[in-house]
Design a protein that fits this description.
By secondary structure, the protein is an alpha/beta fold. Helix content is 15%, strand content 28%. The protein contains four helices and 37 strands. It has a ten-stranded parallel beta sheet with strand order 9-12-15-18-23-26-29-32-35-37, with no helix packed on it. It has a nine-stranded parallel beta sheet with strand order 8-11-14-17-22-25-28-31-34, with no helix packed on it. It has a nine-stranded parallel beta sheet with strand order 10-13-16-19-24-27-30-33-36, with no helix packed on it. The radius of gyration is 24 Å and the shape is flat. The protein starts with a strand and ends with a helix.
Length: 336
């Protein structure tokens, strides 16, 4: 388990410590899911109200938020940057220098487990009954795969992932890779380590060459009965509700929440940090840029046309504001 004294962390982050200097920190959580012996951070001042019920042992904040904080705090100029620097400390200690092990004493195997050729399994993996691991798969440390789940050849499951019962993961899929998260520090991009997990519930099927990124702090979650086609991108901290179906080539950006019993057509792109309610159908090639709060069928995009007709449509679209103004002038004249 990762541990660091709050005084040592303050020094490494060049922070001013206010409060108890005897705290031991085991990790970092989001401001929404705080707990004892962990530190959190407040980068968005609109979320200050969450400090009143904060259960974290300490909070990384800036100077302006000090009056609102009732617990031990580390005061820095840029809380988000400080969080990223601390996350890197955890990441480097927990995920570097992994020792590969296929010793049976390090792996808990259920009954009737079938493991193919050239499989690499790291320490502390738990495989349930009737699990099938295809050839050339990689299973990272602390992974749990429950009963009757099947991984086809060449699947990669990174550390700490949990996969439920009766799931199917097709070839070439990667579960638990880092999400696309960076912060600009002066002129360079600083990687944001992803310390969350991927949790896949029961009866989930994921097609070939799909990627499901681990959460930044909280988990990426795919709920029971979800089916996902080939070549999809599920970014960090996405939550997909029960029995939702996602067709091929769909891209879901980070921290989006998809409801239960939704249908997402192929090649659809869903913006980050939005929510889609239950029982929504999105037709193929759609671009979802805002939250959807009412069930129904939604579409966007222009169907294919002959090129000469498409050019005329594009010109009309580019001039829509001018056309609208002319129509309003005509309407006023008619009314007079």
């Amino acid at each position: 388990m990762f541990t660091i004294k709050i005084t040592d962390l303050a020094k490494q982050l060049n922070a001013k410590l206010i409060g108890d200097n005897n705290i031991i920190i085991h990790g970092i959580t989001s401001i929404y899911n705080t707990k004892k012996n962990y530190i959190t951070f407040l980068a968005n001042k609109k979320l200050r109200f969450l400090l009143s019920n904060c259960k974290a042992s300490a909070v990384i904040i800036d100077k302006s938020s000090v009056p609102f904080c009732k617990t031990t705090s580390l005061v820095v100029a840029k809380p988000y940057l400080a969080y990223v620097l601390f996350a890197n400390m955890i990441y480097n200690k927990l995920y570097n220098n992994i020792k590969i092990s296929t010793k049976e004493k390090d792996i808990l195997l259920g009954k009737n487990v079938n493991i193919g050729d050239n499989v690499v399994i790291e320490n502390n993996v738990k495989l349930g009954n009737n699990v099938v691991i295809g050839s050339n798969c990689f299973i990272g440390k602390n992974v749990i795969i429950k009963d009757n789940t099947k991984l086809f050849n060449n699947v990669t499951i990174h550390c700490d992932t949990i996969i439920g019962n009766n799931c199917i993961i097709q070839s070439g899929t990667v579960i638990g890779s880092d999400g696309f998260g960076y912060i600009k520090n002066k002129k360079k991009w600083l990687k944001i380590p992803h310390l969350g997990r991927v949790i896949i519930h029961n009866y989930v099927e994921i097609g070939s060459c799909t990627t499901v990124d681990r959460g930044t702090l909280d988990d990426t979650i795919i709920n029971s009965g979800v089916i996902i086609d080939n070549l999809c991108q599920i970014a960090h901290n996405v939550i997909i509700g029960k029995y939702t179906a996602i067709a091929g080539g769909v891209i879901i950006a980070g921290s989006s929440h998809i409801g239960n019993n939704c249908l997402v057509g192929g090649a659809t792109v869903i913006n980050g940090h939005i929510s889609i309610c239950d029982k929504v159908t999105i037709t193929g090639m759609s671009m979802v840029i805002r939250s959807i709060k009412k069930s129904g069928v939604y579409s966007s995009g222009i169907p294919i046309q002959q090129n000469n007709k498409w050019r005329k449509t594009a010109v009309l679209t580019m001039n829509i504001n001018k056309i609208n103004k002319r129509i309003k002038v005509i309407e006023r004249n008619i009314n007079k």
